[in-house]
Amino acid sequence: MSWEDTAAGHSVSVLDAAVTDGGAFHARLPFEVVRRYVDARGGGRLPDQLLAALELRCAYCVGVGLAAPAPAVAPCAFCRGARVWRLPWRGHASSDATIQVPNDLAKCTSLRENTLVRLHIWDRLPMAEKVVIKAVLESNNLLPEFKSAHLAHQVGIVYLNMKFPVWRNKEKFGEFIVIGALPMEIIAIFSKGTKVHVRQGAKETEMGVQLHQPIFHPIVQNPPESEVVGLASMSHLVDHIAKKFTSSWNIEGPMRGKSSVVLYGPYQKEAIARGVASALNIRFESTSALQLITDYPDDSVAAVNKMFAGRGPSVLFIDRFDDAAPEAGRGYSRITDVIAAQLKLTFDKPTENSNFIIAGARWRSLVEPGINSRIRDILFSGPEEEQEGWDSAGNILRRLMTPPYDADNTRWSTPNVVLYGWNSSQMWNVASSFAACRSLNLVRVEASQLRMLYNRVGAVAVSDMFLRATCERPALLFIDRFDTVGDHPLIDELCLELDNLDRQVHVCIAVSSNDQGMTICAENLSKEKRVDEWHVRVTFLE
Description:
It is a single chain. By secondary structure, this protein is α/β, with parallel strands linked by helices. The protein is about 30% helix and about 25% strand. It has 17 helices and 23 strands. The chain has helices at about 15-20, 30-40, 60, 105-110, 150-155, 235-250, 270-280, 295-310, 320-325, 335-350, 370, 385-400, 425-435, 445-455, 460-470, 490-500, 515-525, and strands at about 1-5, 10-15, 50-60, 85-90, 100, 115-120, 130-135, 155-160, 165-170, 170-180, 190, 195-200, 205, 260-265, 285-290, 315-320, 355-360, 375-380, 415-420, 440-445, 475-480, 505-510, 535. The strands form 5 sheets. Strands 1, 2, 3, 4, 5 and 6 form a 6-stranded mixed sheet that branches. A 5-stranded mixed sheet has the order 9-10-7-12-13. The protein has a 5-stranded parallel sheet with strand order 15-16-17-14-18. Strand 12 (about 195-200) and strand 13 form a beta hairpin. Helix 6 (about 235-250) packs across helix 7 (about 270-280), helix 8 (about 295-310) packs parallel to helix 10 and helix 12 (about 385-400) packs across helix 13 (about 425-435).
């Protein structure tokens, strides 16, 4: 099926490399364009597992009320003769009114910033049975490194003469070009079953025959920012950890796990770790546990070993520890189980007394218990009076982490829940932290604003809210202060959308613990399993 946007030309913006490095290379369309596309399809929603091809044509070459270049002028000075670009699209919407294209993909296709284009969308594409590619630089050898699943995940579509980048373990490997494909369609889809052959000189070899399927862990979202406080407010923690490490330093012989601390809570943990290194007068190093997340288990094991190998006297701070080493069965993919298992083995091994580890986590309850039991101390980095409430929130998050696996090595069994309590900001903290732990894009909506919009435009206000969440899938839709809606017709529309919810969109509804708010939820949202049967009580110290 094809759909052409009859609106005027669209401008192209190129996303910064830091936003897209190592992820899937898919374009984003303006939300208004996505809405027109959905309306044209007649289904009222984006298809599940959508993978389409965007065909962008230079507006100056095809004309959109603009003066096309004279035939004698060739090529077009604006697109430099490219005229047509074809890009993968999975239903994502851009953050502005432009067509957003990942930096590496734009470079490969020679698509420049502010290019004005006409848009054509091709969906329901055939599967590619065989694809032949070759490296732009002969030094790039794909055979021992990649499976066709890499190309299916990162690029998705294939057509003759397509040039595309390839990444492995968050590092760019090289650029490749398609020199043949079966069937001979204009555009087809890369799949895990597509046989990919690599041409090297006169030789053609199938790629990744002896490799296991990779495990793709999505780009981990950023949690709420940690609170920045002065060093004086954290001096008691710095002194306590420094004394513990000093006592370990004075023990003769290697030790197991005794020179390590987990810091969790709202304060910035790196500043505390840096203060400890200064107090001990030894080198300070900082890294992120996200570097341990790779495409293959063997690579993650090697990354763990490398992180802890031969550092000499130093304090090593490891941030985002709960994202890379969650409790077994509660992370986003199996790769975190491998990391947690290797970390337990690492902490079991004797280490030099002068190697000190400080792991930063936001929630104590989300770190693998087997790791916590191997750590010398687990300390709260925040006001003492807030620790009980913080631990309560962490326990709620742990309840939301459901363990079942599916066939694709990922855990998509995520509940739709109602949070109720008096403190709205704390409920937002729970929801945003949950989204970060589950690698979900977060979409926040105030129920009172939704009600006002519904009064102006009707049911489209609710459908647009869910469509925006679908455009960010996998996503968590957070509807705040739902009790302000009262007995309003938009609840019927909300229930209709929940009954037809996309499998990669999850909903978290926050209400005050008043009788009216809970009655609305009980009478409407809990029916037909629109949300889970249980409600989560959020109680915090004020």
